[in-house]
Amino acid sequence: MSGGVTIHVIVNGRARDLEVDVHALLLDVLRDGLDLKGAKRSCDTQVCGACTVLVDGLAVSACTYLAVEADARSVLTVEGLAEGESLHPLQRAFVEAGAVQCGFCTSGMLLTARAMLAENASPTRDDVLHYLRGSLCRCTGYRKIVDAVLAAAETVR
Amino acid sequence: MSARPLRVVGQPVPRVDALEKVTGRARYVTDLTVPGMAHAKVLRSPYAHARVKRVDATRARALSGVFAVLAGADLTWCDPYYGPAYRDRPVLAIDVARYEGEPVAAVAAVDEATAERALELVDVDYEPLTAVMTLEEALAPGAPLVHAGQPPAGHFADLSTLRPQPGTNICHQFHFARGAAAAALTGADVVVEDAYRFPSVQHVALEPHAVLAAWDETGALTLWASTQNPYSVRVELAKMFDVPLARIRVVVPHLGGGFGSKTYAKLEPLAATLARVAGRPVRLAASIPEAFQTVRRCASRVMLRVGFRRDGILVAVECDADYDVGAYADIGPRVVQKGTYTATGPYRVPHVRLEARAVYTNTTPGGAFRGFGVPQLAWALESLFDVAADRLNRDPVDLRRQNFLAHGEEFAPGDTPIDGKLEESLSRAAEAIGWTRASAADRGRGVAAMLKASVAPSVSEAIVRLHADGSVTVLASAVEMGQGARTVLAQIAAEVLSVPLDRVTVVQPDTAVTPYDQTTSSSRSTAMTGRAVQVAAEDVREQLLAIAAPSLGLAARDLALADGAVVAASRRLTYAEALALRFGMSGGELIGRGVIAPGRTAAPLGGSTPFWEMAVGAAEVSVDEETGAVRVERYVSVADVGRAINPLTLEGQDEGGVVQGLGHTLLEEMLYADGHLLNGTLLVYRVPRADDAPPELECRFVENADGSGPFGAKGAGEGSLIPVSPAVANALARLTGVRLRELPLTPERVWRALRARSSRT
Amino acid sequence: MLRPFTLHRPATAREACALLAGLGEEAAVYAGGTELLLLMKLGLLRPRHLVDVKRIGGFGDIADGPRLAIGAAVTHRAVERSALVQARCPLVGSVARHVANVRVRNVGTVGGNLAFADPHSDLATLFLTLDAAVELVSPRGSRELPLAEFVRGPWETARASDELLASVRLTPWPSGTAAAYVKFGVHERPTLAVAAALRLDGGGRGGGDRILDARVAVGCVSPRPMRVAAAEASLAGASIADVDGAARAASEIAAASVDPADDLYGSADYKREMVAVFVRRALRIAAARARGAEPSERFPHAVVA
């Protein structure tokens, strides 16, 4: 396939038909095509995690992932975490723990943690550190982020 | 001031922008679009130093979808130079490129892909020149000059006395002396001296620099910029385009981190220039590698000689410090002054000779980075303090305690006296790290202290508006870059006006709306901008009391504010009622104003610091001797903050400061070879990850309400970072006997030092 | 931003090879894209055609047999979670868990990793100790090549431009083998990786105490990963109870055998010394596992699997 194609993606629970270029990156389709600005472009090399979205529940670097790969799949962005006005326990935990500063890494952290909790509902601190190894933050020093993830895990349990 | 207990100041309330950030609704510059917006890309010099002989943009301009292509030679219609200390930095290289990565040409096109393709069609002829890449190379006799001739001074009054050394790469010299240091050192019982090196490191804010510039049909300019000082950007652009300040508007949405990288104009002049020529709005966003080519910390080589009496009294300090400020001075000269000014640290020293130089090299310009010159000095002084303690056979904590400046003591004539209790921070840190308890055989502990002045003179202005329904708007230009400034300002206004926090809105900085604030840096936003907000809110309070008094039949001094109303005994007039009374209708507002501008003083740096930032760090480390890998197992930071307006956000900031400090201490270093930066990407520039944070990390605060800021607050945010490197190095020395003088303490560096030790014994 | 390309999604290997043969240098093989798309973003590669191998029958499978066959399009995550891998080659699953970061593991593939042959790739290091062989298919048929011959140097393999890496075949160690894998380094990619496997007499835990044969592989420090035969030979016959001396000797041989260069991952002499350190450590851990113990020691900036 080349040029423009139509893909069918469930984005944040809503079925969408999207016209995308074959060479388009998922991050740009989400940010520019769907106005979902929560995922950020930062390192652009899969190191920092600021662009993380979940595809069929798995964390991917949207900056280095073709949009066409999301065809017939579901994509979850940070905008889809809350249920209406009701925050996801992770979001609530981040707010309460003071785990947000500049906010640029926050979307990636939340989604990565969400993916982890789906696999492991009782993570240890080491489990969280393992999962967040690829999610960088320059503001918080990570401690409150890890605390928030563990607190949310407890709430969800 | 009421003695009533504080309701919201001092509370660990969630930050006011938390919700938008956790839901992805917070907007940063690259989330913004305006109709007709073009996308910009920059062509950068591949050489550290080269003559730019010819830039041919013909093919690039011909590409469909390209709106403008600019090179330095095209900038004849504006003043193409900017810079806060020297206006030495051209928007695009003019005749010569002075560092690898310097913008040489720029394209504005319909989309990024077109802009990138257009860049490839720009032909540039370079003639490589000899580059000076290090302090040694730049200072060598006969070294090629990064700048021929002296550029004009920039816009900061305190730097009007720039002192370059003509004919050299030295663009500023700082000198400070008292007593007779040389003689005192000769007479000292113990003299410790050595040279300490601090590397070039990059801020790596997760959001690189970004700006969206748009000229309107009247010739007025609006920018949305990821900047820490919109007013500084505004004045640069006004000069550049010869437009009145009132017709340049700089708006600041959220910043994805700053740490000093976004102080003073960086990419804003280029975006504005492109937008003007393209005739449409232009968004220019840097990548992380481009951030490495925009600004970094000033690397340094600091030679200190410190003399002590046998009884431990510190008698003299001599300092010769060279700072590498890169190819353009940026705020480097002030970094040099500021860092060197407190070369003596938080100690009493009668005899002092301090010399420092800002040196140009053909590398990424060095500018502000959290700590602003002080980490470089503290690295040297606090390391030498422990070396001295060893020689004097004294406990390092004790030796520091003995020499600390006391509360109220003079630091330098004309400057603010010490406004905190260093001894309290030291004691608490020592206790928390278990200093007097024996450490495990495989662990070592170290401490370090710091003292830093905040920028002075400086100005902060604020407006507080009380609306007809009793809600409040705060207008102030402190930039929210994650440190929680908006929240703290809201808390202050809410406290003074006795309204719930969620009834206060702090609008984003916007030079058309929010009044002048010099800069969001220097740990000053709570103490200075916060104080302006406090004064503005108090102004509103006074107005309310004056309105209410006749209505309640009482004198204003017998009234107070509580829960959104003016109260006295059982009488109560809500703000809504008060305004209705004042305006005779439902409508109108009360406007309060606060101006904090202490002005120039006789202090050595031209103004008296509004507060002293002081803190102590204590580290406990282990080392894998076979590999040299150092691990910080525990770290305690104690900062003397006067009053923690928000203990939750403050603790978060200081935890972040410690971990960022661990970056330059153990991991980070910009490496150059043959004129090229080797590691300007996160694949090979290593910033701390989650598992690098110390497993035990405590950030604590001394609060004696002894600051000049709101409710006795001082400043914070840099004090947690500055002691990290010497505390860790001191711990390593106590554990292994090995003393390193160059950062970062990478595994290989430590391994080599351990081997050298082994081969000596 | 990526430049436009045509994406082909062949359903069979034959189709894929025909495409590669026809398109030549204009085509790149595409699986997870974690390496390829990055190079394309940087402008270092500009293929006009991507040949997606993820839909090719069998490429996403892990198959059992005398050898374990991991299809080229199997992700690191799938390897990590595969019960079959856990049963036949558990260390492979443990190592897969530590490749890069979770996002790369979810998308990146074993085949892509081997075919890219990054000199800092650590997967190949482990595979060498499992007698790994790659299956290459082309219009001419299929052939098998030992991994050591497949990886020729930094980013250089023996794959012809019309050949596809279809799977990698691993020969699980016999029971009574204890192994360890350690990688060390500060950056995103490791400075060095060591895989060590010790086959003991007695065929089982608590059985014999003598090393019948050993496998030692070192990666990331030389132009390509390598087995160190001389180190392996030096270990044969050593007693597990007395492994420290043998480990020291083997580690010195290993250090002398590598060909490191000064680079951002370390200077040559440091790397050489670290090879010695980590070969020793890997052997110690393997020996402890041979005795039924799981050592808890961990080293800063190192991952132990």
Q: What does this 3D model show about the protein?
A:
The complex is a heterotrimer of chains A (157), B (761) and C (305). By secondary structure, chain A is of the alpha+beta class. Chain A has two domains: 4-80, Beta-grasp domain (Ubiquitin-like (UB roll)); 89-156, [2Fe-2S]-binding domain (DNA polymerase, domain 1). Chain A has five helices and five strands. In chain A, a hairpin with a 2-residue loop joins strand 1 and strand 2. In chain A, helix 2 (89-97) packs across helix 5. Chain A is globular, with a radius of gyration of 15 Å. Chain B folds into three domains: 18-26 and 458-596, Aldehyde oxidase/xanthine dehydrogenase, molybdopterin binding domain (Aldehyde Oxidoreductase, domain 4, 2-Layer Sandwich); 32-129 and 207-256 and 261-292, Aldehyde Oxidoreductase, domain 3; 296-456 and 603-760, Aldehyde oxidase/xanthine dehydrogenase, molybdopterin binding domain (Aldehyde Oxidoreductase, domain 4, 2-Layer Sandwich), CATH 3.30.365. Chain B is 27% helix and 25% strand. In chain B, the strands form nine sheets. In chain B, strands 3-7-1-14-11-12-13 form a seven-stranded mixed β-sheet. A five-stranded mixed β-sheet of chain B has the order 9-18-17-16-10, with helices on both faces. The model of chain B has no long low-confidence stretch (mean pLDDT 96). With 305 residues, chain C is α+β, with helices and mostly antiparallel strands. Helices cover 34% and strands 24% of the residues of chain C. In chain C, helix 10 runs antiparallel to helix 11 (243-257). The two termini of chain C are 37 Å apart. Chain C has twelve helices and 15 strands. In chain C, the strands form four sheets. Chain C has a five-stranded antiparallel β-sheet. In chain C, strands 14-13-12-11-15 form a five-stranded antiparallel β-sheet. In chain C, strands 1-3-2 form a three-stranded parallel β-sheet, with helices on one face. At the A-B interface, helix 2, helix 3 and helix 5 of A face helix 1 and helix 16 of B.
Could you provide a short overview of the structure?
With 761 residues, chain B is an alpha+beta fold. Chain B contains 18 helices and 32 strands. In chain C, helix 10 (229-235) runs antiparallel to helix 11.
